[in-house]
């Protein structure tokens, strides 16, 4: 079956900070950095490309029309717990910490994080 999403372009204000935050998180979720590029590829072929574009204007606000958040997967609950434990030292801030790991409902096991630029990522156990 072909992948559902081909790629995602992520526009950021601070490439250096975002590279550290996103690079760590994507690697923790099984993505591989592509040599010499600000790009990470998932084993299914989907990739995320990061850049600061001269066409950007204004700050990112996930609460405005557009993409609210990105959801990634990890294979196990132990992997999710590891991402949670290490996220702060990599620039991420946990959202809904008081409801971890069921902030999305009792049957949903996930971690919600926000980057320093306010991008939200939901890390979900399994498919």
Automatic annotation (TrEMBL):
Chain segments annotated as transmembrane: none
UniProt-recorded name of the protein: Glyoxalase
Pfam families hit by this protein: Glyoxalase_4
Species of origin: Nocardioides pini
InterPro entries listed in its UniProt record: Glyas_Bleomycin-R_OHBP_Dase, VOC_core
Domain VOC as annotated: residue spans: 4-126
UniProt superkingdom: Bacteria
């Amino acid at each position: 079956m072909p992948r559902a999403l081909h790629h995602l372009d992520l526009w950021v204000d601070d490439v250096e900070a975002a590279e550290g935050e996103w690079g760590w998180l994507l690697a923790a979720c099984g993505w591989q950095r592509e040599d010499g590029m600000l790009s990470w590829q998932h084993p299914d072929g989907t990739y995320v490309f990061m850049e600061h574009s001269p066409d950007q204007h204004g700050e990112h606000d996930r609460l405005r029309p557009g993409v609210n958040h990105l959801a990634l997967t990890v294979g196990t609950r132990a992997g999710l717990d590891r991402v949670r434990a290490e996220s702060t030292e990599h620039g991420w801030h946990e959202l809904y910490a008081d409801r971890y790991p069921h902030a999305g409902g009792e049957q949903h096991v996930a971690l919600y994080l926000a980057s320093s630029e306010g991008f939200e990522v939901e890390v979900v156990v399994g498919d």
